[in-house]
Amino acid sequence: MNLDTLYSELTLKTSAKIALVVLDGVGDIATKENGEMTPLEAARTPNLDALVGQGVAQGRMIPVAPGITPGSGPGHLALFGYDPIEFQVGRGVIEALGLGLELKPGDVAARANFCTLDKNGVVTDRRAGRIPTEVCQELCDKLAKKIKKVGDVEVIIKAGKEHRFVVIFRGKGLEGPLTATDPNREGLKLLEARPENAKSLAQKKAAKAVAEFVKAALPVIASHPKANGFLMRGIAHQPHIPLFQDRYLLKPACLAVYPMYKGLAQLVGMTKIEGPQTIAQQFERYLAEYANYDFFFIHFKYTDKYGEDGNFEAKKKAVEEFDAALPILLKKKPDVLAITGDHSTPCPMKGHSWHPQPVLIHSACSGSDKLDRFTETGANLGSLGVFEAKYLIRYLQAHARMFDKFGA
Known about the structure:
Layout: H1 3-10, E1 18-23, H2 39-42, H3 46-53, E2 57-62, H4 72-79, H5 91-98, E3 108-117, E4 123-125, H6 133-146, E5 149-150, E6 153-159, E7 164-170, H7 201-221, E8 229-236, H8 244-248, E9 252-255, H9 259-267, E10 271-272, H10 279-289, E11 295-300, H11 302-308, H12 312-329, E12 336-340, E13 357-363, H13 376-379, E14 385-388, H14 392-399
Parallel strand pairs: 1-11, 1-12, 2-14, 9-10, 9-11
Antiparallel strand pairs: 2-13, 3-4, 3-7, 3-8, 5-6, 6-7, 12-13
Helix pairs in contact: 5-9, 10-12, 11-12
């Protein structure tokens, strides 16, 4: 018997309400430049402090495996209880679903973002200065008007937020995954998308379609001062993934702003609740939907965004913005509340990292670690210890008294 089968056999249906609140990339590292503090430690968080004072268990989570830096997809799938090594999903698929696009069998989706290229084709800004969403929309409309097909493959383009967009390649005999055109850092030229399986004819055809699209698209946007190029990654087709409700006997809902995270939620069968644009609005909608769902995934993006920018002060203020809105959620405190990140995004590194992210769990049976605050330093001392993120959902079920006793 494997572990998932055992958990399924032990799972009980209850009336418990569970909320998983994700401060994306909240984990960080202390440096001398920032007074030996992280943004979470430097932030003024009276409401989080009060919650900790009511009794919580704290710890740190390894997002994938020791030393492995995850993307947002693996980071969130682990939080949802899916082994991110077993369930690998292309970021293009996730982004496409989050934007409300329907993927058909054989579709290959790519997550793209505009970038800045110099006259030699070298990437000088991977995010094109974070162009406004309306500029992204204009550029995507321009591309969609000019490029409807490459060979016998239909091309579908849809704008996302800021510099992000999605490209879907639709035709017969296509399959992913392909390698990215994104070199992952400035100072390098665009890469060529290649089949991950060199023997796959379907992947070869998809790679050819991507190459033809890039060749046709770059001249269309070449005159833009910032967004004169684009990067593509997560080029893949949609895999089969077991539904969240079937695995955990919980009816789930998602409250997220960015398409990427809506797509991740939809991928596992969560209901996307549309409308809210701020964390306060997300918490207000949680109150309104409280009776309709058993599990709430609530996502806050800006801790990750400012970590990627290397902006310590802005990341600290994002934590404080979250903290100011927290009392709204606590008007209807769930039976089990978890606050954590999907990974760490340290400001000194300006990107995701392998550092374990802090986590707290509050419930009637969480006990108290007798800590004053929710920080990386405090979490190191917590009773949850260090564990793999894929087990968080099982801890939440246990705190909700959803497991029968194992054995005599």
